Amino acid sequence: MQSSLSYGTSRLLPPSSLRPKVHVVLFTGQSIRTVSRFSATPLGFFAGFIVILGGPTLGYSQAVDAPEIAAPAADISPLTDGDAFSRLQTDMFYLADDERTGRGPGTPGLDQAAEYIANVFRDAGLKTDLIDGQPFQPFQIELGAEATDEANNYVLVTDSKGPPQRYALDVGMRPLALGASGEANGRLVFVGYGISAPELNYDDFAGVDIEGAIVMLIRKAPTTPDKKGPFDAKQNARHTYFSTKVQAAVQRGAAGVLIVNDPASGAAQRRRLQQRVAAEQERIDTIDKNIADAPAGLTKVISRLQETREVSVKQIKQLETELALAENALLQVGEAGGLKDPVSAPVISFSRKAASQMLKESLGSDLETIEQEIGSTHQPQSREIPDLELKVKTEIRDSKITTSNVLATLPGRGPLANETVVIGAHYDHVGMGGNGSLAPGTIAVHNGADDNGSGTVTLLEVARRMRAEFAESESHRRILFIAFSGEERGLLGSKFYIANPVFPLQDTVAMINLDMVGRLKDNEVTVYGTGTAMEFDGLLDRINEKSQFNLTRVASGYGPSDHSSFYQAKIPVLFYFTGLHNDYHRPSDDFDKIDFGGLVRITDTVLSTAKFLATGTRPTYQSTEPGAKITRQLTVHLGIRMQNGDNFVRIAEVAPSSPAERAGLRSGDIVTQMDGKPIKHSDEILAALRNKNPADLMTVAVKRGADVQKFRVLLGQRE
């Protein structure tokens, strides 16, 4: 996953007196990860400097009537450790490196990340022997169906005119989870596309006997040259479903089903592999140039570049092997459906190349010719294939992997020692794409720098600094740090912890969740769960006096991240989030787009929040409504700085040449309405703008002196 206010509706800087300090970071040998992903990055980048804006901007304090958490005795001003910036970078370099391969479930990269997190917890002096002497809380994740082994998955074709031909797992065949594990024997019958649609005057099963036979059918449906045939219409798409075709065959007595991929899907599969090979080769070429340009003294940099190059070389070899097999156009095991309700017969994805050869030798026409004939004539071409007998065998199982939450604790002291405050962040991501990726068809490393490398590195930095925060405290609650796995598969890690808590849930007073906090923009931070304890609004007001964020508050404790598991266990939650963006669950969510200055400030804020929760009055749980909407970052530019008053918002400054200035808005105007909706707080302005797109018109009503005036604002594109 967001007084005076920063330019919350634009990309403007706050006034010069309150502009952020400039952090200058010199890259070292450790900090070269960018080259492994961004092929355009020149080597000179590593010897240079990054300038990142961070530090305080304008903020506000809102008066509330809710009870407050009693302040701790010690000063709670955030400790901004001068090395936090570089430590956050170092952690992100490791966790979001290509070598972690996207931290997908069941991968070495995720296990490496878990070990890294555990080592940071140990080095921070935290107690890590929480589960059988270890920091790891293991649990299982179901990944879906998989084939067992080559001995139990094959197609054997016996030809009365020649020697038998065996088609092996992942080369000539692959079992599909749509069908059952088992064996089948029978003659081979080709049934075209396997469609029975009498209402469209088309039936591939008419006139052929498939009782006890192995049937071969083509994926999708016949297509006419003008793309206006009956199966090109969307309302007839049901006839093309895998399950519809397979059930039709099995209901007619088929002992097994071979599905042959269609030409378009096979071509797309090969094209994706070719693109991946080209991308890896481009990366190698850039690395070679950087190595050639590197000064001889940069031995660590050169060594790391060579290691990264070797990873790409191995990747190309693997891709070329896959490309050589791609002409078979095999489907993945679960691509046609799952294991929940398989049909009673084995169902197999069969090599398109092998199927075409068999049809050519037996019928005189290859697969492409038959497809064209069916498409042009709208007449089935089903028939038994003479002289061929098939034996098929499949064995499919549920695939499960073991992964772990990583836990550590700072023990409590005094009267509060047996109560717990949880700080959590998930460290898993979506691996190489596929399940969970929003880049369809893309098989590439999804490094998940923001989701949720950002939350994880913030968790680690808070863990490092927490002991010092409580060094002088005589009474505080236990702080439990949890790096969750399995979040991307349905909050599995946090759900497992709730079902198997290390410390009693009834003594867990609050949970802080960090998910997607690395894209601070326009000083906006959204905090979910503000209504889950009656004291939380007042707590946030107090903390934000120092943090100076433009806070958007969402009362609900529900949502698509790990805090929801705790809230459903009636534990108050606060979830920090800097907003959705277009790189979410895509390969482009990478290191170069992380705002490390913002992460330092969020780290300070979480430290302050945790210290309040660990030492003050226990928060009072409240129920909230489900259905919290996840906040997306603004895409429009208005160009004002806002100041909250007592139930009103004043425009403190209008940016030159901004949409606001061009529309006629002025400093000192009090915003009363936006598109007819009353405005009493800056949060309402931000909410209104989030529903807008660049070039949209918005009606803004303002009070100017004694007059109320309306202006039509043409919103700009946010940079």
From TrEMBL:
Keywords: Aminopeptidase, Coiled coil, Hydrolase, Protease. One of its GO terms (biological process) is proteolysis. The keyword rRNA processing does not apply. Its EC number is 3.4.11.6. Residues 270-336 form a coiled coil. Transmembrane segments: none annotated. It is an enzyme of class 3 (hydrolase). Residues 627-706 form the PDZ domain. Pfam families: PA, PDZ_2, Peptidase_M28. The keyword Ion transport does not apply. Gene3D superfamilies: 2.30.42.10, 3.50.30.30, Zn peptidases. GO terms for molecular function: aminopeptidase activity; metalloexopeptidase activity. This is Aminopeptidase YwaD. It comes from Roseimaritima multifibrata.
